[in-house]
Write a structure and sequence with these properties.
Blueprint: H1 2-14, H2 16-19, H3 28-44, H4 49-58, H5 61-76
């Protein structure tokens, strides 16, 4: 499930124009994809709850990038 969530987050970042508005925040389609990723992540990674909540509230491109970086760092640790 973690791999699927990583893939979905990566998809968000790769297709910026489809998933983010002109100000750099998730649009409705981007929020749908993020919510799928968030549900998958929180099943196994409860320690991410606070970070996921922040992205849900703000939904900025930078927040998504930081979440993905955190996941990749924890993967190598």
């Amino acid at each position: 499930m973690r791999e699927e969530a990583l893939r979905l987050l990566q998809r968000l970042l790769e297709d910026y124009e489809s998933f983010f508005d002109s100000r750099g925040y998730l649009n409705s389609e981007g929020r749908k994809v993020f919510e799928r990723a968030a549900r998958l992540l929180l099943r196994d990674e409860e320690w991410l709850k606070e970070r996921v909540s922040r992205v849900r509230r703000r939904g900025s491109y930078g927040d998504v990038v930081r979440l993905l970086e955190l996941l990749r760092e924890s993967e190598t640790a």
